[in-house]
Amino acid sequence: MKHTPEPWFYDENRPANFYSDDDTGSIIGECGRYAFVKRSDDERRANARRIVACVNACEGSTTEDLERLGKDFVAPLINLIDQRDELLTAITEAENIAVDSIRRMRAAHVPCADLIKRTESLVQVIRAAKGGAA
């Protein structure tokens, strides 16, 4: 049997429930209402939010892959996000240095048109790598 397709969502007005994103907006599940151990409303809300976040984060992955890989599936992704953030900081600094170098060369009337052109190309590459961010 196939699970309800993503995305799922969480509604603050009915915080222990989570829903599908189909036309009906039907309830997929409810956290803790009939559990053997009563859960606080806050814990039920937190559980529903976590379920929705996990399901949506795993969109495109098969249940079999998730069962096979378990937590080893997520840890490398978190590491990649951290590395991406560090790299973005480094290339932003490189961009700032390159832009400042161009400005200084032009202000000093340094006869190095080729270096300015190469530095401007570097800035374009950096900006493209950053997704066009300025």
Q: Care to describe what's here?
A:
- It is built from four helices and three strands, in the order βββαααα.
- The longest helix has 33 residues, at 75-107.
- The chain has helices spanning 41-57, 63-69, 75-107, 113-129; strands spanning 8-10, 17-20, 27-30.
- α3 runs antiparallel to α4 (113-129).
- By secondary structure, the chain is mainly α.
- The two termini are 47 Å apart.
- The chain has a three-stranded antiparallel β-sheet, with helices on one face.
Task: Write the SSE topology.
Elements: E1 8-10, E2 17-20, E3 27-30, H1 41-57, H2 63-69, H3 75-107, H4 113-129
Antiparallel strand pairs: 1-2, 2-3
Helix pairs in contact: 3-4
